[in-house]
Description:
Elements: E1 7-11, H1 15-27, E2 31-35, H2 38-47, E3 50-55, H3 65-75, E4 81-85, H4 89-95, E5 102-106, H5 111-122
Parallel strand pairs: 1-2, 1-3, 3-4, 4-5
Amino acid sequence: MAGREAYVLVVDDDPLILGLIAARLEGGGYNVTTASDAWQEVLQAQGLKIGLVVTDINMPGAGTGLDAYKHLRRVFPQLPVIFVSAMPREEIAKQLPPDPKVRVLSKPIDFGLLRAAIKELTGVDRPL
Length: 128
């Protein structure tokens, strides 16, 4: 994630969680854009300069966070993605191929772990 020009795309169908994650990232100095479903996730990632995606997995509507990830991976093979989900990690592991540019965090979100994952994936370390 290079500089302040790149956006962090936060995706969740729960407006409270979406707002909380976006506010914490913005408070840390990140440029943030949001989406509430997988289709919006794909459209925004293709239309903006995105340096990182933080996304839920299970969302209503057209596809899941995993579906959006698979599409985005074909277009942006090096885009870092952090999944934040209440889904058991074992179930996620069954559906997600190994990828060094992906991290999986559990809900409720631990912002210390989110900060560490962002640093691992992007090299950027800002307080959240």
